[in-house]
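Notes, Module 5: Reading structure tokens.

Key idea: the token line is not a picture. It is a compressed description, and you learn to read it the same way you learned to read a sequence, by spotting repeated patterns. We will look at two proteins. The first is printed below with its tokens.
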Amino acid sequence: MQGKAIIPRDRKTTLSFSTSFIPEIRLADNIHTTIGTAAKVQGAKTATLVIDGFLARSGLAGRIVESLEQEGISARVFSDFAGEPKLAHVRAATAAAIGSDTVIGVGGGSALDIAKIAACCAASGEDPMFYALAANPLPKAPLKKIMVPTTAGTGSETSATNIFAGPEGKKLWIWGAETKADLVLLDPVLTTTLPAQLTAWCGLDAFIHAFEAATNRNSHRGAQFYAHEAMRLLTASLETAVREPNDLQARADVLLGSCYAGIAIDNCGTAVAHNISHALAGLAPVHHGLATALGFEATLGWLVDADTAELEAAARACGLSRVADLPDFVSRLMDRCGIVRALPVAFEAYGAADLAAEMKAPENQPMRRSTIRPIDDADIDNFAAEIMALPKAA
């Protein structure tokens, strides 16, 4: 006769959560060469390719268009953008996508976000600002979407969050399952030409996505499953990917870690490091990965004082036995990846009060509220002062 398990009355036996749908994900070397056949299987007849400009000029856009045309799919290319997505870019991509039934995003997070928003706006005929900050429901029948990331950082290929700069230059977001990809192709070969600095910035962004999703107020076991694996992959392989760019196994691990981190933030969101990085971007141009890494390092010592079970689990995913070891672990990882603690020279025009005001702005409050430790205005002022005291470099 089996004994009956005795469970203490104060122990939680169930945990309620739900996870959003995860697109089909395929990973393989040179899998980008299958875009044409993949689009055909999805029923594509006309496609718009949204691709980073330098990738288009490298000949990649031409090869993708050729693969589409070989499958009988007519294709057009939109590559007239650079840097962080802006409203003008999203509007132009939307105009290019009208009349297509499929949008293919190839590039970094900017290209993917632009492609996903365009797939919704081209289907509905609405301007992107109609959907900004969830002002209105997204169209229920967007264009089909295939996402092919060439950087390993944003996780945009699996998330429902899409960032762009609005008419006043402030970061806005469009959120909803309708923006998510139908198919994700992960090709480590496409990431090998990413410079070491960008590999490091993007990889730290992915790690912080995973960490914040696994430890914030919205975190749950469904997302932690992906977040913890993302942290393991990224901490084990990011330094190798930075130092040995042609190591395809390291590149694949970092790419998959970024993808899994995207799934995690899609379900649980981010926290204070992203509040800071979005606030910085509201002042002047700065790479999102760098800004997030700087914000993370500046706040992690404060954050780990919470010493929650979620922080303990995150520490174990990093191979640590104590939560208190996390700040030093992250700083050493940043050192090994060559992260320079400096802001672009454009930030010389701003002070701590300017950054604090951005951190308190309405669009950045969700990340403030989700942080596991309550953040008061004095905390924000302290964080802002530490960030803005960093050197400014060209």
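Here is the second protein, with the sequence above and the tokens below, as before.
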Amino acid sequence: MDKVLRGTLIGAVALLVWATLGILTVWSGDIPPFQLVAVSFFIAFVCGLIKWILNKENPLSHIYQPPKAWLLGVAGLFGYHFLYFLALKSAPAVEANLINYLWPLLIVFFSAFLPGEKLRWYHSVGTLCGLAGTVLLIVGDKGFNFDSQYTVGYLAAVGCGVTWASYSVLNRLFGGVPTDAVGWFCLAGSLLAALCHLAFEQTVWPDDLTGWLVLVAIGVGPAGGVFFFWDYGVKHGNIRVLGAGSYTIPLTSTLLLLLIGEGSLTWALAASCALISGGAILASSDFLRRKKVDQNL
């Protein structure tokens, strides 16, 4: 299998798993955000540790990475989640979440500055279609108004988008840093989140087996283990395809919520589906054309 195709497919796994974050977060109950980050990041580290032990690797061999890689890894993973929770605490969730989802758009644009990359019209148009679909999906018939009293939250949400897009694109420049290093970055992020939790939050643990299973699922999946897939994808896959495909996250998350009875199908959801799907296909057209050519060779 072509290396770029393989990397893109592995990165796409992260997009599918991230769609479950909404449901799992709802099911996590009253566990405060920094505690949730601390636990889920630690579980991600444990997943990496298990992999190293099974493969008879020395875990410490992955800890020796360039300082810039450590700075990017910890700042990207922990920084994004810190800003995300700050945004949702300091501004209305709809507006904050909408601003946060600028990161797929920014990934496509930022990637144009990478060596050997070039931004084409269909990347821009496809990504803007995805952004329009996301706006329609989140806002729907309700509309929203920006209020100056939520400035801190809005700025934090902008920081979310810039942080995750920058982390994803700059990761491309650290192709020599193994994906296994993400395990150590998660451990560092877990320690930072734990300190924030102890300083600002009250500890809350699940009170039944289901709650513990949900907590583990979050750590193994959308807020932990999935970082390994995303790291490999942005380093070795088609980053524009992954950026455009990221718009499927709010869509698939909403569809999953509909399946469990949260909300109902509306015209806004149907229109969003068309915009997001069409935009992702358009922005990915060069990748799809190349795949077709390769199959004909």
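Summary for the second protein:
- The CA atoms of residues 108 and 129 lie 13 Å apart.
- The chain has a mean pLDDT of 84.
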